[in-house]
Design a protein that fits this description.
- This protein is α/β, with parallel strands linked by helices.
- Helix content is about 35%, strand content about 20%.
- The chain has 2 domains: about 10-250, Rossmann fold, CATH 3.40.50; about 265-435, Molybdenum Cofactor Biosythetic Enzyme, Chain A, CATH 3.40.980.20.
- It has helices spanning about 15-30, 65-80, 100-110, 165-170, 185, 190-205, 215-225, 240-250, 275-285, 295-300, 305-320, 335-345, 345-365, 375-385, 425-435; strands at about 10-15, 35-40, 50-55, 85-90, 125, 135-140, 140-145, 145-150, 180, 210, 230-235, 265-270, 290-295, 325-330, 370-375, 390-400, 400-405, 415-420.
- The strands form 2 sheets. The protein has a 15-stranded mixed beta sheet, sandwiched between helices. The chain has a 3-stranded antiparallel beta sheet with strand order 6-7-8, with no helix packed on it.
- A hairpin with a 2-residue loop joins strand 7 and strand 8 (about 145-150).
- The longest helix has 21 residues, at about 345-365.
- The chain is globular.
Length: about 450
């Protein structure tokens, strides 16, 4: 998949692994051939793609480390020849006051403003809206469905509790740059009015602007208005409007097989580490009719062989007269999560789950598993690193924000990496069917 004479057009940096595949899914839907790398590649050999997405695991690490990793990704993408850059974060803006979104945006703007005219410090928008999954922004406030972000359950997130729905306030607490708002009044009037509103904010000293969006139509408008910005930031939704910019500039022809993936043979499994409402519902639905094994983090701390027990459970069902895929999960209710955090600490509780599921994933591969459905951004990051995955080709959408993927530089693996909040209740069954090629 190397050696293309066509330089990639769009270079993307995502702060977690499922967010990266979510974004890549949007680009494939826009007929951009998309490759996702796991971390910043060591090689500068050009990849054959219209869009490149570098998946980092930087959402909850110290801000200085997130900045350093993001700048390294930017350097690699610039070396690949990308014309425009995109910084992707969660559609629920998972970021505390000490978080990484503001510092990373500032650093990327600074880097991309090198050589600009004196006094120009760059400008970008911030738009995590994803209406297809119920995330909308109005007057700078982020809604999940009909509920404000801080009343949606995200206020209970174990690592990034979101207690303020006003993104202007949230982001302003993370950055010294002046934060403004592109109001829906302008967006609803179309691209020229939106671009005028952005220009007015720049004249007023605003460097970063939250952008209202209530519908996909708004996202297409915003995407077109950002055609000339070196940097765009947001959730995957705002990427809906970016492929058309390259097409209008006659840089992107599009291809009918942008989502084509090779078929992968082997056993299948579901791994879930997210504690979100959506994943809890998906785990409950699976357990009604299918085999599942629960990983207890406190049992692991006590020295119980939870990894070996999980693998024995999987081996039993793989070897049954009618073999079945299994679910291995550490998903828990917010109350259960808080109990574990009280005993182990917030960071260690999360890391323990990730390490345990990563070890289980490695063991499952030795049992012949080649198709993995993984729920949770942090969990997905740990699993793909444990499996040695470096590069993924992005395929068709399974559910909004979640595509099928396949490795292109290692032993054949098929993966569906799901953000904790994404997917219908029957997502696990649907995803396995899709990876099996039966969708």
């Amino acid at each position: 998949m190397t050696g293309s004479t066509q330089k990639p057009l769009l270079g993307c940096i995502a702060d977690d692994f499922t967010g990266a595949t979510d974004l890549a899914n949007m680009l494939v839907r826009g007929d951009m051939r998309t490759v996702q790398t796991i971390g910043v590649p060591d090689s500068h050999e050009r990849l054959d793609a219209d869009a490149l997405v570098v998946a980092l695991k930087s959402r909850t690490i110290p801000a200085a480390d997130a900045v350093a990793q993001s700048l390294a990704a930017l350097d690699w993408l610039r070396a690949q020849g990308c014309r425009q850059f995109f910084f992707k974060y969660c559609s629920t803006f998972d970021s505390t006051d000490a978080g990484n979104i503001g510092p990373v945006i500032d650093a990327l703007l600074d880097a991309l403003s090198d050589g600009a005219a004196k006094g120009e410090r760059g400008f970008t928008i911030v738009c995590p809206a994803f209406p297809e999954n119920g995330r909308t922004i109005y007057r700078g406030h982020l809604f999940v469905g009909d509920t404000l972000l801080n009343e949606s359950g995200m206020e209970n997130h174990p690592l990034t509790p979101m207690t303020d729905a006003n993104l202007v306030r949230v982001l302003q607490r993370q950055t010294a740059s002046k934060v403004g708002l592109v109001r829906h009044d302008a967006v609803a009037k179309g691209m020229p009015a939106t671009r005028d509103a952005m220009a007015a904010l720049q004249r007023d000293g605003v460097r970063v602007a939250i952008a209202d969006a209530l519908s996909d139509a708004d996202l297409y408008t915003l995407g077109e208005a950002c055609a000339d910005l070196p940097l765009v930031t947001g959730g995957s939704g705002i990427a809906l409007g970016l492929p058309a910019n390259f097409r209008r500039a006659q840089l992107l022809a599009g291809t009918a097989d942008a989502s084509h993936l090779p078929r992968v043979a082997g056993r299948s499994v579901v791994l879930a580490g997210s504690a979100s409402r959506a994943t809890n519902a998906q785990v409950a639905a699976w357990r009604e009719t299918r085999p599942a094994f629960r990983v207890d983090p406190l049992a692991a701390v006590r020295g119980e062989p939870v990894v070996e027990q999980a693998l024995a459970f999987a081996r039993e069902h793989f070897g049954a007269a009618t073999p079945q895929p299994v679910l291995i999960y550490a998903t828990a209710t917010p109350e259960e999560v808080k109990g574990v955090q009280l005993e182990l600490g917030v960071a260690e509780a999360g890391h323990l789950v990730e390490r345990t599921l990563a070890r289980i994933a490695s063991g499952l591969r030795e049992l012949g598993v080649r198709k993995f459905v993984v729920a949770g951004g942090e969990t997905s990051g740990a699993v793909v690193q444990a499996l040695g995955v470096r590069t993924l080709r992005i395929g068709a959408q399974i559910d909004p924000g979640v595509p099928a993927t396949a490795t292109i530089d290692a032993e054949p693996l098929a993966l569906a990496l799901k953000s904790g909040n994404f997917g219908a209740t029957d997502f696990f069954v649907k995803a396995l069917r899709h990876l099996d090629g039966d969708a």
